[in-house]
Amino acid sequence: MAPALSVAAHLRVDGISHSFADRRVLTGISFTLPGGERAGLIGENGSGKSTLLRIIAGLASADAGSVSAVLPGGRAARIGLLHQEPPFSPDDTVLQALESAVAPVRAAAAALEQSAAAMAASPGDVAASDAFSAALELTERLGTWDIDSHISSMCSGFGLSDLDLEGTTGALSGGQLSRLSLLWVLLSAPDVLLLDEPTNHLDDAATAHLRTVLAAWPGPVLIASHDRSFLDDSLTSLIDLDPSPMPQAFARSLVGDGDGSGIGTTRFSGSYTGYLQARLDSREHWERRYTDEQAELKRLRASVRENQGVGHANWKPRSEVRAMAKFSSDRNAKVVSRRVNDSRSRLDELQAQQIRKPPRELCFSGLNAAGSTAGSGRSFSGPVLAAAAVAVDGRLPASSLSVAAGEKWLITGPHGSGKSTLLDLLAGRLAPDAGSVNAPASLRIGLLAQDVELPDPRERGPGRTVLRAYTDLVGERLASEVPLRLFGLVAGRDENRPVATLSVGQQRRLALAILLADPPDVLLLDEPTNHLSLVLATMLEAAIPDYPGAVVVASHDRWLRRGWTGRRLELSDAAGGR
Asked: Which residue intervals define the domain ABC transporter in the entry (predicted)?
């Protein structure tokens, strides 16, 4: 069920630029979103998607540019943003959080009652009548009459009906907290809706409910997401912040623009599937155009040099008449000058307009890029990792799984079924309340958890750089033998940045590189496509079958599940795994 808004807002973003102390993230970002449009904001990790959403929402300031969000008639529109921080206090009860979301609706109902009483007390008062009409229009627009049933249906749609209304939000699990935050933003019924990775903690049912809500949303919707299926099924257009062609002179004028993510935008109307091919075609065209321009520049520069002596420099007129000799000399000079000027003019024009060189794109080298055979599992026979009827009270019903060397497993199930808990048990990070996990003593197991974990064993503090963190966590010897740049996960320009300044996606890339520096026999990946760029998620998925060791993936990613060719284990709330 969507909010009862009937008046659509209009969002305009004009020339937004933003820099941090060490780098520029956004330059000249411009686009418009009319009511009813659902646009996906995509780009590499660190390209400024979350920053742009915060600027549009008024939570961060741009260095340049403007944002305009208005309703018909010029009234300012309300903007709602789902981002990493919950919009309520951890000390609030669930009921208090829900009521704070619908506070504007409750206030509109109270204002209507007051205006109705004022109009009844002063029949014929034009001002009182106008106030009542305005209050009535607002309550109808906000869906005041159906708000309680709306809250109930939304809680059900996002799997939150069973929450203890008197319990504090701080006691909720990470997934519950994320879904409650999304529910809060939707219930607040903003005129412009901004969502940052809304599906990261949604199962199939909740994702389907969100698609239904957004399909009926009257105002502009802008969503930063790496969920490929969601982009394919739910959005009307895509706004790409990845590098795009631009005049080289402009690119050189930018300070710290790195590879150029977040410089301008590329707009694509269509599905993500169609966008993939369009993106490849665009990149190929850019590279071809750059190559052709450089060849033409080389030719023109040579022409300018050669034309300095073009004409008849050594030619002597047959006539010894002095006037004729002077005329011939002047004509020769004019020919040379015209040719030189023409070539220089074309050269200057092309140099001013030439596009910049396409920046090298990060290309994931694969799960076994380190080249180690440690993950091959060849020294093991039979199951290398077995969970027998393992259970954790309140988190995982009795479930069993037997993983052989080199096998690829996908664990699926709704939220609350225990996917992450099962991976924690397999990794030895959690002890079961019942059942057992068995593995050879020499088996090496590696886990990429949902929450980024980058310990600071040497207590280097917030200034610890990416390269320093990698070296500390894999060891000096291994960092030298298997350099970070080998994996194609972290851009060279980011290696000396403090870890604390990285986006969540960039931190997850670093965690993956640390895990793969010495490939384990069994690789456990918990929601591996969360927070990763669309391109990397696709590359990572394609690399799984080629990993020599066993891989166990827990994921709700419909795109990944659709193409999975390995074995599957489905968990459910009631019966556990099968």
From this structure: 11-268, 380-578
Strands of 408-412's sheet in order across: 445-448, 522-526, 550-554, 408-412, 567-570
Q: What would the two tokens of residue 537 be?
A: 């998620």
CA 358 to chain centre: 21
Q: 239 forms bridges with which residues in the sheet?
A: 41, 267
The confidence score (pLDDT) of residue 256 equals 41
pLDDT tops 50 at residue 254: no
Highest mean pLDDT among 4-8, 78-82, 111-115, 307-311: 78-82
Judged by DSSP in three states, 73 sits in: coil
Looking at residue 304, its amino acid is V
| Of the candidates 163, 148, 152, the residue with the CA atom closest to the CA atom of residue 94 | 163
Dihedral of alpha carbons 52, 57, 60, 64, sign: positive
Q: Return the pLDDT at 328.
A: 56
Contact indicator for 396, 422 with CB cutoff of 8 Å? yes
Which of the two residues, 259 and 48, has the higher pLDDT score? Answer: 48
Distance of CA 510 to the CA centre of its chain: 16
Longest dimension (CA), the chain: 115
pLDDT (tens digit per residue) in 535-562: 899 999 999 999 999 999 999 999 999 9
Candidate from 76-80, 130-134, 232-236, 281-285 with smallest mean pLDDT: 281-285
* The residue type at 216: A
What burial letters (b/e) apply to 282-301, b meaning 16+ CB within 10 Å? bbeebeeebeebeeeeeebe
Query: The sheet that has 38-42: what strands, in order across it?
Result: 79-82, 192-196, 221-224, 38-42, 237-240, 266-268
Report DSSP state, residue 354: P
The radius of gyration of the chain's CA atoms, rounded to the nearest angstrom, is 31
Class of residue 162 by CB neighbours under 10 A (exposed 0-12, middle 13-18, buried 19+): exposed
Q: Which residues pair with 392 in a beta bridge?
A: 396
Give start and end residues of each alpha helix (H) in 315-396. Answer: 322-353
Q: 252 with 559: CB under 8 angstroms?
A: no
Q: Are 130 and 138 in contact (CB under 8 A)?
A: no
Tokens describing residue 13: 């973003």
3-class DSSP state of 385: strand
Residue by residue, what is the 3-state secondary structure of 501-567? HCCHHHHHHHHHHHHHCCCCCEEEEECCCCCCCHHHHHHHHHHHHHCCCEEEEECCCHHHHHCCCCE
pLDDT (0 to 100) of residue 321? 52
**Class of 374-570 per CATH?**
alpha beta
Which CATH number is 1-78+190-270's, of 3.30.300.70, 3.30.70.980, 3.40.50.300, 3.20.19.10? 3.40.50.300
pLDDT attached to residue 393:
93
The residues that bridge with 20 in the sheet, in sequence order, are none
φ/ψ (deg, to 5) at 24 = -95, 135
Give me 59's structure tokens: 């939570």
Count the Cβ atoms, other than its own, within 10 Å of residue 174. Answer: 12
Nearest CA to 286 among 358, 354, 360, 353?
A: 358
Query: What separation in angstroms does the CA of 278 have from each of 177, 264, 285?
Result: 37, 17, 10
pTM of the model: 0.75
Distance CA 212, CA 302 (A): 62
